Amino acid sequence: MRIDRNIKEKGHDPYVEGRKYPEGIHCPECHAVYQGGRWVWPVKPVTSGESLLCSACRRIRDKFPAGEVYLSGAYLARHKKEIENLIQKIVKDAKERSSQKRIMEIRQENKGLCVRLTDDHLARHIGDAVYRAYKGDLQVKYSDEEKFVRLYWHRDE
């Protein structure tokens, strides 16, 4: 009996197929292009040729985030717009560098905010930035089975 058959891969991401796509294939939703082994923003929009939904667009379609950031507390209520602006700036900068780093949604939830993202590293970056800028308490919880992170930031003061 082989024991290694029972070993599970850590951090499985169902949106990474483990294969390369043909160079120049484009996403019909966001218009990113697959070049050099990754999805990038093209210099000129590509609308003809072979197309395939990129992993970020598939996550958005399936409503299956790679990361979530929950923000709560009295401090959030008083500084909501300022904190939302910080989050939007971080996402804008990340999206310019990588087509796969996007916000899926920001929604009001139980007197707080829930930010759902297409990239787990982006979620961690947002949580860390909010914590550095506004202090408070930050908890980070990684999933054992999937490539997913959930962050909780809270400040009452």
Describe it.
Strand 6 (137-142) and strand 7 (149-154) form a beta hairpin. The chain has 157 residues and is an alpha+beta fold. The longest helix is centred in the middle third of the chain and has 24 residues, at 74-97. The protein has a domain at 64-154. The mean pLDDT is 90. The protein is built from three helices and seven strands, in the order E-E-H-E-H-E-E-H-E-E. The strands form two sheets. The chain has a five-stranded mixed sheet, with helices on one face. Strands 1-2 form a two-stranded antiparallel ribbon. It has helices at 55-62, 74-97, 120-134, and strands spanning 33-35, 38-40, 67-72, 103-109, 112-117, 137-142, 149-154.
What attributes characterize this protein structure?
157 residues, alpha+beta, 5-stranded mixed β-sheet, two-stranded antiparallel sheet, 7 strands, 30% helix, 24% strand, elongated
- Percent of residues in helices comes to 25-40%
Shape: elongated
Q: Which stretches are low in confidence, meaning pLDDT under 50 for 5 or more residues running?
A: none
Strands of the widest sheet, in order across it, are 4-5-3-7-6
Rg from alpha-carbon coordinates: 18 Å
* Contiguous helical run count: 3
The residue-averaged pLDDT reads 90
Helix-strand topology string: EEHEHEEHEE
Secondary structure category: alpha+beta
Strand composition percent: 15-25%
Largest sheet: 5 strands, mixed
Strand tally: 7
State the separation between the terminal residues, measured CA to CA: 58 Å
